[in-house]
């Protein structure tokens, strides 16, 4: 059993319409699935990804209309990275961000990679990371109808950053329970703080890393709009997922057991610092119930919610995602 890399990251938005505009019109990502939060079907769950929603390319959002302000802190997923093909792409994005009024900090260096740290309109903590010198998990492909440059487009998820006060229990879960190994470190951008530790799994590279930040100067994060709910890691299939469930039980770590999300199978657990991890299968994928050419254009519901469609649609605010 080996974790293959990052599967998806799920965050919180308070406004699905504005969220859809930013991630498709500004970032040029494709909405590959417009569905509902399976734990609260009165709100949307939006999936943005590459051309077909390949595993490792999905940034998803739960809409929580009353979500308050996020107060950043420890015990959190404090940063989400998006991969771009090379360093030249960052110059394109820096200009695009300037032209679209996107808050960013210019091109900088993170370890041996070039990055741009930026925020979405709800202060989601995001980073574009260059694949210029990357080796490891292959990237996805930008959508041919992207609003942004296809040549310089976003190709998938990069490292997720975790922020904790005591790193030891998190490191133990990553390395002893899961299949990560420490492969490096780089200086923190915060003066006086410890180096950020890099952990890698599977083929490694930008698509298979966790970056662990230690902070002793922050309270526990209070999540809200613009915060990350969980990070999911890739496993091959349902059979392997069942083995991970058994491994968690043997380690006496409480977990959700296997959960059918229809587009993939999942398992959830919290590591000792309280951060929510998910293990998710690579398939069956987002084309299971929609034609590839029309992904995300209409409300997709898993079969076990289809009988409730009329009731569910009545509760949702209209969100036009039809493509021209």
UniProtKB/TrEMBL annotation:
CDD domains named in the record: PcpA_C_like
Gene3D superfamilies in alphabetical order: 2,3-Dihydroxybiphenyl 1,2-Dioxygenase, domain 1
Keywords for this protein: Dioxygenase, Oxidoreductase
Domain of life: Bacteria
Alphabetized GO MF terms: dioxygenase activity
Domain VOC: 5-131, 156-282
Protein name: Ring-cleaving dioxygenase
Originating species: Ornithinibacillus salinisoli
């Amino acid at each position: 059993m080996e974790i293959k890399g990052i599967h998806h990251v799920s965050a919180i938005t308070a406004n699905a319409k504005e969220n859809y505009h930013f991630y498709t019109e500004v970032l040029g990502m494709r909405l590959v699935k417009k569905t509902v939060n399976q734990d609260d079907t009165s709100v949307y769950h939006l999936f943005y990804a590459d051309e077909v929603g390949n595993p490792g390319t999905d940034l998803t959002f739960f809409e929580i209309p009353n979500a308050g302000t996020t107060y950043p802190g420890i015990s959190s997923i404090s940063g989400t990275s998006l991969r771009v093909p090379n360093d030249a792409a960052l110059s394109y994005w820096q200009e695009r961000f300037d032209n679209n009024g996107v808050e960013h900090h210019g091109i900088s260096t993170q370890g041996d990679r070039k990055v741009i740290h930026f925020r979405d309109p709800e202060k989601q903590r995001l980073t574009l990371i260059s694949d210029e010198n990357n080796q490891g998990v292959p990237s996805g492909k930008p959508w041919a109808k992207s609003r942004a440059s296809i040549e310089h487009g976003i190709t998938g998820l990069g490292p997720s950053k975790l922020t904790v006060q005591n790193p030891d229990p998190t490191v133990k879960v990553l390395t002893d329970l899961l299949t990560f190994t420490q492969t490096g470190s780089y200086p923190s951008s915060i003066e006086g703080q410890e180096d950020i530790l890099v952990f890698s799994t599977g083929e490694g590279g930008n698509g298979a890393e966790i970056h662990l930040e230690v902070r002793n100067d922050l309270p526990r994060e209070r999540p809200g709009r613009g915060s990350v709910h969980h990070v999911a890691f890739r496993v091959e299939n349902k059979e392997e997922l069942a083995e991970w469930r058994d491994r968690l039980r043997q380690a006496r770590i409480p977990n959700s057991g296997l959960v059918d999300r229809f587009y993939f199978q999942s398992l959830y657990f919290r590591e000792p610092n309280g951060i929510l991890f998910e293990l998710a299968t690579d398939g069956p994928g987002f084309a299971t119930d929609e034609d590839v050419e029309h992904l995300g254009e209409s409300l997709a519901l898993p079969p076990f919610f289809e009988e409730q469609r009329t009731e569910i649609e009545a509760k949702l605010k209209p969100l036009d995602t039809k493509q021209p």
